[in-house]
Amino acid sequence: MFESLLLIKDVQDNAVLLSGILDNLGSCYTLVNNSKALDFLQKALKIRLRLNDKAGLGLSYTNLSKFYNKSNPILAKKYALLSYKEYTEANCIDDRLNALELAIGTSYEDDLKKSSILYIRLIDSIFEVRQKAKNHYARIKYDSKNEKVENLKLRTQKVQNELHLEKQKSRNIISYILIVLTLSLSLVLYFYLTSKVNREKIEATYKSETRIAKKLHDELANDIYHTMAFAESRNLSLTQNKDLLISNLDAIYLRTSDISKESGQIITNENYMYRLKEMIAGFNTQNINLLVNGLDLISRIDIEINRKIAIYRVLQELLVNMKKHSNATLIEINIKNKDKDILINYTDNGKGTDMTTLNFKNGLHLAKNRIINIKGEIETESAPDEGFKVSIKFPV
Hints:
Layout: H1 2-5, H2 9-13, H3 15-31, H4 37-51, H5 54-67, H6 73-90, H7 93-105, H8 109-233, H9 239-263, H10 272-281, E1 289-293, H11 297-300, H12 305-326, E2 330-338, E3 341-348, H13 362-373, E4 377-382, E5 388-395
Parallel strand pairs: 1-2
Antiparallel strand pairs: 2-3, 3-5, 4-5
Helix pairs in contact: 3-4, 3-5, 4-5, 5-6, 5-7, 6-7, 7-8, 8-9, 8-13, 10-12, 12-13
């Protein structure tokens, strides 16, 4: 069979396959004691040396050792040791043992002892490795069983987690619905409060216009009617009557100017401080002592226009309220700047009022709204016969 294979071209072109067939053929001739064996074994060895085929070389040396086993023990031992060396490098355990058996069979005395000891150690080492492999396999089998149990637990845990996630998902949906409802209610409340504030502004504006109209009717119109009656009934050619008429007309003009300043447009340009001081000075009469501290601070700080208007109107409304209701003789206004806030403290020694019955209307109501609109705070403190105090704070 091997001889017929040597005639196939594909075998001749394949060096590995060819060397294997030549070596097997040589081994067969060795078994039948044919002299052709050595030639085939040497041809196979030559090819394997060229290929540097470690396992193939180990087999070639083994077959050569068997060939010389009876005729030349020394050469047989040499090839057995070479076979052991090649099989060691190729990491062929069982073939190493076979090579050692051949070496032992051709060794004597010390060489025999060394080869035998090496053989025993190799056997023990192989047994230990294989025993470990068996133990490892048993461990793998045991771990596999545990893994199946663990997988079953994990599947159970997975189902429980999925149920938990579904419950959590349901809770999240409920939470989202509650959040949406809360936001909706917040928006409704915001628009309601905004609408309420706007209505209060409109109502305050209406009351302010009504107050001005009432003041024009009750005060200014009566004075004008009284002056007209005086002019019609008196002899204006007399110096005394003429002077009295002029005095009445001047009083009417001043009252008209006060009403205009109280409700007219406020100048916020470079003349703002002049207008503010002029307005405050208008309340400083013979019967009223007005002390103002820190007013120039407003000119040194960059204050927004709407805040300037609020300062002007609030001070004006407090002073008008004082003049109309408190009968105060001493008023003190302190203006300070603290931590980026403007602080205004108003104090008078008027007759005061009971805070439990105080109703913020007209001027005081407008003052409170103005401070709130600029994100400020306003506090009032008063008692009967103890004067009136107002503390105002708003950001610059």
